Amino acid sequence: GESVGLHLPTLSVQEGDNSIINCAYSNSASDYFIWYKQESGKGPQFIIDIRSNMDKRQGQRVTVLLNKTVKHLSLQIAATQPGDSAVYFCAENIFRNQFYFGTGTSLTVIP
Amino acid sequence: ETGVTQTPRHLVMGMTNKKSLKCEQHLGHNAMYWYKQSAKKPLELMFVYSLEERVENNSVPSRFSPECPNSSHLFLHLHTLQPEDSALYLCASSQEFGPYEQFFGPGTRLTVL
User: Fold this and answer.
1) For an engineered disulfide with B56, which of A8, B2, B40, B48 has Cβ 3.0 to 4.6 Å away?
2) Which residues contact B59 (CB under 8 A, 6 or more apart)?
3) Who contacts B78 (Cβ-Cβ below 8 Å, separation ≥6)?
4) Are B36 and B110 in contact (CB under 8 A)?
């Protein structure tokens, strides 16, 4: 499944499938991006980050892709598990070293 | 656990009450942040402290008053709040102020009656 930016706030995927969550960012000068995961009742948890001099970065089961031309960021989760169910949001580092956070996409993994 | 703790986890207060939120980080970081998270809205940065000096104040009403006595502790003093201030208040810390990963605490769920 795939969600697009902030306009589709929910995403449901079957356990074992790959998930793709997208984020459109606002500032072409942003040079650092983070994906966070927030489970119910918890604070946001760092997943992976990427700087603007890279197009792709991989972690454990997660990959972040950055397309600076269209100001687009995506998070790919391989072999999605029930424990991946959470809200995912991207953050871009903007002027004055502040982060702008998206509203997030709610991922539900169906067993 | 992220190394950032917040107390209390839940708080209910009347509009005339005075209360304080506490945040402590055990990571040796030099920057600490207060954010407000309301339902279906992005995280809103409220205050930033770097080496115990306030470096950002994002037009936050004076009924919210931050205090950073040292680099490990951050408080948010609350006074005469409004019902629309009900939200999840998150504390975070980072190695330095700037484009660095921020580590978040679990938040304080605040309800203003």
Assistant:
1) B48
2) none
3) B13, B17, B18, B19, B20, B21, B63, B64, B65, B85, B110
4) no
Cα angle A47-A77-B45, degrees, rounded to a multiple of 5 = 35
Question: What is the tens place of the pLDDT at every residue in A1-53?
Answer: 333 334 458 999 999 999 999 999 888 888 899 999 999 889 999 999 999 99
Largest CA distance in chain A: 43
Cβ–Cβ contact B33 with A under 8 A: no
Which of B48, B97, B102, B108 is the best mutation test for A, with the most CBs of A within 10 A? B102
* Residue A53 CB coordination number (10 Å): 8
pLDDT of residue A33: 94
Q: For B82-99, write each residue's pLDDT tens digit.
A: 999 999 999 999 999 888
Cα angle vertex B80, ends B76, B82, to 5°? Answer: 95
Cite the DSSP H helix spans in chain A. none
Shortest alpha-carbon distance between residue A111 and chain B (Å)? 26
Q: Give the pLDDT confidence of A66-99 residue by residue, as tens digits.
A: 999 999 999 999 999 999 999 999 999 876 668 8
Helices (H) and strands (E) in chain A, counts: 0, 11
In this predicted structure, the answer to whether residue A62 has a pLDDT above a threshold of 90 is yes
* Total Cβ atoms within 10 A of residue B6: 21
